């Protein structure tokens, strides 16, 4: 069911953008994730550094106000072990718990001054990867989650808030915070917490 919702969202995003591109601005984006978990049942000071990449459309509704839907891949999770800490799985590399999502945020975009906008809204997030990687800087090293954490829920409702600055040449920069409102795992108070920093281009 949730996979069907995701497919419908992606198809709707793509077909509507193609049919209404004379009214919409659409673009591409990518950047850096600093991801972790927060909640009463889990805490860690070892954030996972990963990436985000995706597509977006800006739909002007009135002067200084737009709606901005997006579809993006977001690398999340946390670091289980950093280099120089106690050895784990007989490796000297970082070890990451990789919990990656397809995020579908739908954001209200308010221009504060020319080029600078505030963005906020819900995000509908779908798990696409759940594994331990004990060689995150190399190929290989990926293993299924071996009981370090329980199986995650395959769907999450979150919230996004941040700032964007768009230059006159259509490039833009963003800084955001993403928070998972729903629990990441069943019966545990654990939530995704992700800072995102990125750049993009509007066509």
List the helices and strands and how they pair.
Blueprint: H1 2-19, E1 25-38, E2 48-62, E3 65-74, E4 77-81, E5 95-113, E6 116-133, E7 142-144, E8 155-166, E9 171-180, E10 191-202
Antiparallel strand pairs: 1-2, 1-10, 2-3, 3-5, 4-5, 5-6, 6-7, 6-8, 8-9, 9-10
Fold and architecture overview:
By secondary structure, the chain is mainly β. It is 9% helix and 58% strand. The chain has one domain: Porin (Beta Barrel), CATH 2.40.160.20. The chain has one helix and ten strands; from the N terminus they run H-E-E-E-E-E-E-E-E-E-E. Strands 1-2-3-5-6-8-9-10 form an eight-stranded antiparallel β-barrel. The protein starts with a helix and ends with a strand.
C-alpha-based Rg, rounded: 18 Å
Please outline the major beta sheet: 8 strands, antiparallel, barrel
Count of spatially separate domains? 1
What is the string of SSEs from the N terminus onward? HEEEEEEEEEE
Strand content: over 45%
User: Structural class per helix/strand content?
Assistant: mainly beta
Number of helices: 1
What is the fold-level CATH name, i.e. the topology?
Answer: Porin
Residue share in helix: under 10%
Tell the overall outline: elongated
What is the CATH class? Mainly Beta
Strand order of the largest sheet: 1-2-3-5-6-8-9-10
Uncertain ranges: 17-21, 84-90
Could you give the count of β-strands?
10
Span from first to last CA? 33 Å
Overall mean confidence score, pLDDT: 84
CATH architecture term: Beta Barrel
Organism: Salegentibacter echinorum
Pfam families: OMP_b-brl_2
Protein name: Outer membrane protein beta-barrel domain-containing protein
InterPro entries: Beta-barrel_OMP_2, OMP/PagP_B-barrel
């Amino acid at each position: 069911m949730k996979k069907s919702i995701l497919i419908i969202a992606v198809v709707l995003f793509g077909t509507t953008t193609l049919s209404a591109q004379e009214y919409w601005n659409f673009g591409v984006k990518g950047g850096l994730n600093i991801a972790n978990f927060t909640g009463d049942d889990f805490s860690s000071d070892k954030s996972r550094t990963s990436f985000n990449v995706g597509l977006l459309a800006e739909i002007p509704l009135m002067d200084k106000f737009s709606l901005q839907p997006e579809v993006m891949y977001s690398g999340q999770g946390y670091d289980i072990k950093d280099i120089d800490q106690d050895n784990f799985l007989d490796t000297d590399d970082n070890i990451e718990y990789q919990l990656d999502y397809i995020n579908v945020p739908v954001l209200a975009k308010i221009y504060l001054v020319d080029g600078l906008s505030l963005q906020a809204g819900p995000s509908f997030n779908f798990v696409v990867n759940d594994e331990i990687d004990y060689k995150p800087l190399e190929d290989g090293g990926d293993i299924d989650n071996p009981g370090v954490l329980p199986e995650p829920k395959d769907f999450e409702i979150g919230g996004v808030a941040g700032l964007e600055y768009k230059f006159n040449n259509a490039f833009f920069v963003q800084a955001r915070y993403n928070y998972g409102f729903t629990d990441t795992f069943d019966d545990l108070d654990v939530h995704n917490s992700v800072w995102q920093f990125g750049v993009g281009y509007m066509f």
